[in-house]
Amino acid sequence: MKNKVLLSILLFTFISCSESFDIDVSFGESQSINPGIDDAFASTYKPMNSEPILFKSANIYDGLGGELKDYDLLLSDGKIIEIGKSLTAAEALIIDATNKWLTPGIIDIHSHMGVYSAPGVSTSSDGNEATSPVTAEVWAEHSLWTQDPQFALALKGGVTAFHVLPGSANLFGGRGATFKNISQNTIQAMKFPGAPHSLKMACGENPKRVYGSRGQSPATRMGNMAGYRSTWIDAVEYTDGMNAENSDSRPTRDLAMDTLMGVLNGEILIQNHCYRAEEMALMIEMSREFNYKITAFHHAVEAYKIADLLADEGICAALWADWWGFKHEAYDMVQANVAIIDQARNGTGCAIVHSDDEVGIQHLNQEAAKAMAAGNRAGYEISKAHAMRWITSNPAKAAGILDQTGSIEIGKDADVVLWSGDPFSVYSRAEKVLIDGAVAFDIDNPKIQPITDFDLGIIQPQTNRVK
C-alpha cells in the first residue's frame, strides 16, 4: 500500500507552477476502494446554449504571457476553435473587437461566495464549522447558496470560474470546490466538471485564537503543529487500513479521514491559509514528513521571504496586491510580494492575485495591475501579458483545471472576456463575458445581465444604483 501512495506522490511532484507547467494528471480516474465518494455530489453542469462567434480584429492576452495584436478568435460548440488573422466563418456571429481586448476568463482561487453570501447576516454565515480544530469532514459546497447575488457582480468583473473554500478558523477546515460562474438551481449544476476538491488548512493566529479563547488546544503555534501532525498520523493509518487486501480488516468509513486519504493519494489539493514565512516552511517540512503535496499558500503576506523555496517546491502563492496590517501576522508586507514570487528562480515562481473578498473579486484585473506596477517600481520588468497569468492560467493551475480553461488556446473551454479597453486600466469594463462560448453577461443587453430571485425581491435591479 505504501508503495502505491509513494507512486502517487512521485507522480504529483512533476506538477509545478512554472512557465512550463502542464497538468497531465486526471484526478479521480484511479480505481477507488470507496467508489461512492468519487460519485457523491458529482457535477451535473451543462453549458448554456451557444452559437458560433467570431471576434474580429481584437487585441489578445492569451493568459500564458502572449500578446497578439489585431487577431481574430473563433468560438464554436463551447470551445476555442481558431486564432489567427482574416478568419472567416459563414455561420458565426461577427463581433467587431477593434481597439478592444480579449482575455481568458478571470479565475479566483480564493472565494467565499455562496458560503458567506449576501447580505452578510448570521443566518447565511456558513463558511466556518468552528466547532473543532479538525473538521476535514465538511464540504464548503454543502453550504453554498446558489442564489447569492455576489455571483452576478463577480461575473460583471470578468470572473468565469472560482474556487470556494471554507473559512480559516480550523487547522483542517474542510473541502473546497471549483464552480463555473453561472448561477443554477442546484449546487451540482454549478460545479466545474472534473475539477478536483481541495482541503483547506490554516496556520497561525486564527486556529489558536478561536480555540485558545475557549481554553482548549490549540492555544499556541506549537499546538497548531501538534494538531496537524497527530491528525496526519491518523490519516496514514486510516489510508493503510482502507487499502488492506482483506476487506474485513478495513476500518469503518470516516468522512474526515476520507478527505485526508484523498490528499495522501494525490487526488485532493492542499490550499493552505498561511501568512508568516517560517510557518510556511514548517508546513512544507510537514508535507515531506507525511508525503503529500501543498498546492498553494493563501494570503502569504511574507511569501517574498521564501520565494525561492516556494519555486523549488512548485508551490503557488495566492496573494493580495496590497492588503496588510489588519492583524499582527499580516504586518511584515511588501507591495512587490506578488512580483517577487513570480520572478523567483529565474521567473519560474507561481504567483496568483486572489480576492478573499466580495468586492475585490469584482475587479481582480485592477488588483493585478496594482501588483504589476509595484513589481515594476521594484525593478522587475513585468509586462501586462505576463501579469495576466496571475488571474487566469496560474489560478487555473492551482485549481487543477488548466487543461480545460485559464488560457486562450485551441481546444480549451471558450471562457473569455471582451474588455472595452486595456484590461489593466481602471477605465476599462468587461463588455461581454462568455462561459463555454455562451454570452453570460453583456453590458449592452439588460436581458443578458443575471438577476437573482433575491435581487428581484429586494430592489429594482434595472435601475442605476450608482448616483
From TrEMBL:
Molecular function via GO: allantoinase activity
Record-linked SUPFAM superfamilies: Composite domain of metallo-dependent hydrolases (SSF51338), Metallo-dependent hydrolases (SSF51556)
Listed InterPro entries: Amidohydro-rel, DHOase/Allantoinase_Hydrolase, Metal-dep_hydrolase_composite, Metal_Hydrolase
GO CC term (a single one): cytoplasm
CDD domains in UniProt: Met_dep_hydrolase_C
Keyword list, A-Z: Hydrolase
PROSITE patterns to which the protein is assigned, alphabetical: PROKAR_LIPOPROTEIN
GO biological process, one term: purine nucleobase catabolic process
Signal peptide: none
Top-rank taxon, per record: Bacteria
Domain Amidohydrolase-related residues, every copy: 368-431
Name listed for the protein in its UniProt record: Amidohydrolase
